[in-house]
Amino acid sequence: MPLPEASQKVQDYLDRFALDLNVRQFPASTRTAEEAAQAVGCDVGQIAKSLIFRSGDKPLLFLVSGKNRLDVKKVSKELALPIKKADAHFVRETSGYAIGGVPPVAHNVEMEVYIDADLLVYEEVWAAAGTPHAVFRLKSSELQLITNGKVITVN
């Protein structure tokens, strides 16, 4: 069964790496961290939530463990950047995806990526793959490789 266009875009990006990363579709929703964890059968902490914030007109992507909330004040201070949560229009415009399916890769515009250090505690993590029903599994150690992200503490 062919992947939806948004998920195929993610798969095409993942195929650039010499890794075995495959987008999987589920009949159940994977829109929230809890739904994704239930669909794939993992701990909610293993879900890499893709959260887009903005600093002015610049998009910033935070990959946050499903068990955590990003402390905006703390992270803003740590990065010495004013940040605020992006609205749905900004997320769609910059990433190319709707909230609930934003992957950590293959965006419309290049953006800085920050990875929650808590994700690296897990051997494997799951991330969205373009739609609210598609995800892919990867080793947490591969997150930096595919995103060029910086590891930070988010809470």
Describe this protein's structure:
The protein has one domain (5-152): YbaK/aminoacyl-tRNA synthetase-associated domain (YbaK protein, Alpha-Beta Complex), CATH 3.90.960. It is globular. With 155 residues, the chain is an alpha/beta fold. Helices cover 25% and strands 26% of the residues. Strands 1, 2, 3, 4, 5, 6, 7 and 8 form an eight-stranded mixed β-sheet that branches. The mean pLDDT is 97. The N and C termini lie far apart (40 Å). It has helices at 5-14, 33-40, 72-79, 88-95, 143-147; strands at residues 23-25, 47-55, 58-65, 84-85, 112-116, 124-128, 134-139, 150-152. The longest helix has 10 residues, at 5-14.
Poorly predicted tracts of residues: none
Roughly how many Å is the radius of gyration?
14 Å
Write down the domain tally.
Answer: 1
Q: Rough shape?
A: globular
What percent of the residues sit in helical stretches (DSSP H or I)?
25-40%
In CATH terms, the superfamily is YbaK/aminoacyl-tRNA synthetase-associated domain
CATH architecture: Alpha-Beta Complex
CATH C-level category? Alpha Beta
Largest sheet at a glance? 8 strands, mixed
